[in-house]
Design a protein that fits this description.
Elements: E1 2-3, E2 9-10, H1 13-22, H2 27-37, H3 40-43, H4 54-62, H5 69-72, H6 76-81, H7 87-102, H8 106-121, H9 137-142
Antiparallel strand pairs: 1-2
Amino acid sequence: MKIDVYGQPVYTEQDVFDELMCNPVLEDYGTFLVENILDIDCIVKQYQEPDVDVEEFHRLNQQQWFMTVEYKNLDIAKYILDLCTTDSELQRVGEELLLYQERDLFDLLRYLVYLVDIMRANNIIWGVGRGSSVASYVLYLIGIHRVNSMYYDLDPREFLR
């Protein structure tokens, strides 16, 4: 498998066969499929790149987040600003929100609020944070991670390059 410029996986027939036959969890099921049912050519479609450039591809996909209307219509800037308790937090969040807005990522932030709310409502545990995402104080306020980037003086541009 390889990843194309759009971030989509591209599988060959061999990739599918290897996954079915070599994955210990799927081994018996894979053997059954290959011997009794499966026409491998039906699984592997001819790969075609989308007809749009990478930026347009990402923009179109960001408009298709599954979430309720309540979250789709959420004033995300107000929601996040209301989570701030100090002037320094308001300053930092304002700067970050401008970076998110420049990149047209408000729908993503809405989805993340929805995701965190669903995980909390269903007692689903998620990680404390990793990588450059912990540089975003906005993501900390939403609850995506538990690293206070203001406390550690992390630059949000590390995340939003």
